[in-house]
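Lab notebook page, bench 4
Experiment: in silico fold of construct C2
Operator: M.H.
Input chain length: 171 residues
Purpose: comparison with the prior construct
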Amino acid sequence: MTKKTNTISYGSVKAYAQVKDRIKEFRTDCPNGLIETTPTITDTQVIFKARIVKDKSNPASAEATGHSMADVKGDKAKAFEKQETIAVGRALALLGYASDGEIASSEEMEEFLADKEEKRTEEIMEVTEAIGNCATLQDLKTLWSGLTGEMKTQVKQTQEAKKLQLQNETN
């Protein structure tokens, strides 16, 4: 019987195994395994090292190490927990406990997607401003030709409104 680790989807990653599910699978597979974490805490950072050994009674057993580091802002306890989870998740992924080979933690995936969305929003705002700054139809056409299909879809109404404005100004 093939075991199946629970997975969730994050953006383009269709089969992401959360760290809690990877730990459960590891504990089932390796009852004599070891998960050991070592924190280092400073005034500004939390750093974790996680060492995982498949069979602690076997000196030749497979093992992996994962690390994580974060600047501390606000809640140190939450940063501490998050970094420990990330380090353990990385070590487990390096031992093969990740459904699609993804090493990032779910928190990192959430941050990545949030950052990606923020950058996309900023890019839309910049292109919208650039459209507004076009002084001629040729300027607008040149700007438009350099945009990706996705960006064109996002700013189409702005482009059409500016085009109408410029056409009315030239008539």
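Observations: The beta strands are 8-10, 13-16, 34-41, 45-53, 63-71. The first strand starts at residue 8 and ends at 10.
Next step: discuss at group meeting.
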